Structures are given as structure tokens and as C-alpha cells.
Amino acid sequence: MTRTAHEVLDDPADDVARKPGGGCTTALLSLLTLGFLAWAALPIVELDVERYTVALTALTQYAVIAGAVLVLLGLLLRRWLNVLFALLATVALVYTVAPRVIPDPVVAEGEALRVLSVNTYFGGADAAKIVEEVRNRGVDVLSLQELTPEMVTELERAGLFAELPNRVLQAGPKADGTGIVSRYPLRELSLVPTTTLAQPSALVDVPTGRDVEFVAVHPIYPMGADTTPVWQRDLVALPEPSLTGQPRVMAGDFNATLDHTRLKDLIGRGYVDAAGALGEGLTPTWPSGWTAPPVTIDHVLSSGGVLPEDYEVVDIPGSDHRAVFTTLRVAG
């Protein structure tokens, strides 16, 4: 039977055939779009429960780029349904990620507390460079992760304890050790129960302002074959903001980005992330080189009237992380 011209124009099969690439291209683009939708949904449905979804969640900011590429491909190939789904998911991701590069309009007031956090990479970081940064930046409190006994010796030899004489150190082999070193007197606390890696805490006796509780943070690396549940427990062990409004700072290698469920929950209970508040929330801190896609897993969180004034990441030779420096203001 001969078809009319109108029937030929309206035939969906003919429409598909006329699209660039044909049915195979449609199927491939649809599979890529479905994969992208699953990736984009991870931070929303909070499925970072095993190491592969933890890794994909850490790369959420890169999903925005993947979504934009899929939207462009869909437009070029005229796959309108693919364009629609990819565009909606990309817009949702932008809505989540974009605030991290927009500074909050809050003005920090009060006494300055300068905080530096350094992951020493199994004690292999350049001790002299750490001390130089402490001295040049007038650091008041230093959080050290992966602090080995040998690293303590190197730091002492480089003059750290002449600059910051007060310390609560829980040094250990490999990545086990963590420490707090301060210009001001410290009184050791027990704000964090025993975790896989040391996470010491102390009360910083700030002479011209309110005393500040300080936690040096380092939950275990979540990408091992069986470490993800332990990483989750280590993060859950971190204290919520004080109900009494006691000033508190938590600084270190959280091994988590702002998209990971446990860190989002912690911040949602009343902490301020210094980088996110100052529009630096996408500034990467790991790795220091290009061995993996750069992500932001080192943080300074504060609560109880403590707000960030400035923020910077610092290269430390010998470390696989970039150090984090921020000036906090402790309200009176």
C-alpha cells in the first residue's frame, strides 16, 4: 500500500532513522545518560556505603561537567528525551555545588584564631616547611595528621615547639598518629571516643577571648576493601556542636567531601565549613599532584560563634595533601 506524504513525515521509525547515528547511537547515549543519572543521584539518595559509591560521590563536582557534555551531545544528535533528563540532573547538581564558590555574606567578628592543618603523609612531609608556614602565618593552633614519632623529632629539630610550645600528641606508626600543637595552653579532652586512627581533642586557653574546644580529625581512609564501614563510624564519632554554645573547631583530613553523607549530616547539625563559607569549597586539597582527580577532603569546621575570616590551601613538600590555613574569629 502506498503511503501519503503526510504519513511518511509522521512515521516515528523514519524520524529515528533520520537522526544522526541511528538506533545504536540512541541506545549508547541512553546508557550513558542512565549512568550519569545514577551518579548524580548518589549524594541525594545517600548511597555512599561502599568504596565505589564513596569514590563517585567524592567526584560529584565532575558530574556537572559530564552532564553538560551529555546535554550537548543530546542536542547535536537530536535526542530530546536524553537532553531533558540530563539537563534536569545537571541543573540539580549545579544547585548543590555552586554555593560552594559563593562566599556567605556573614562578617566574622571577635578574637583571631589562626589554624593550620597538615597531613604529614606517614611522617614524610618537610618539617622545616611546616615550621616556616607556622612562623610566617602566625599560626595559633596546628592540627597534624599521620604524625609519626620520627615526624615529632623532625618538627622539634626544625623549631616547631619554640613557636608553639603546647601540645597534645598521639604519635603512632604510618597513618595512626595525630596531634594538636598550640601557641596557647592546652588541656586534653576526650571529645571523640577511640577510633581507628587517633583523633585527639583539647581545650585551647585563648588569653584574650573565650576558650575553644579543638579536635584534630582523621577518620580512616574509606577506599580499602573493608574500610568504608569503619570510615563511617569514625565520622559518626565526631562530636556534634555543643548544646551550650561552647566554641569548637575541628580541623584535619576528614577523608570526605561536602557531598558525603556523614560530613553533610555533621555540618547540618550546626558546623560551618570554612572553605564553603568563603567561596573556596571546590578548592582541592588532595592529591597534591595529579595522581587522581583533585577533591576537597581536608576541612576546618567551627561552631559556637566561631566563624572563618579567610582561607587558603598551602603546598607542603613531601605531603600528598595540601595544607589548609584559615583565620577564625571567636565571638566574645
UniProtKB/TrEMBL annotation:
SUPFAM superfamilies given in the database record: DNase I-like
Xref: Pfam families: Exo_endo_phos
Record GO terms (molecular function): endonuclease activity
Keywords assigned: Endonuclease, Hydrolase, Membrane, Nuclease, Transmembrane, Transmembrane helix
Record InterPro entries: Endo/exonu/phosph_ase_sf, Endo/exonuclease/phosphatase
Residue ranges occupied by any Endonuclease/exonuclease/phosphatase domain in the UniProt entry: 116-321
Entry superkingdom: Bacteria
Spans traversing the lipid bilayer: 21-42, 54-73, 80-98
Protein name stated in the entry: Endonuclease/exonuclease/phosphatase family protein
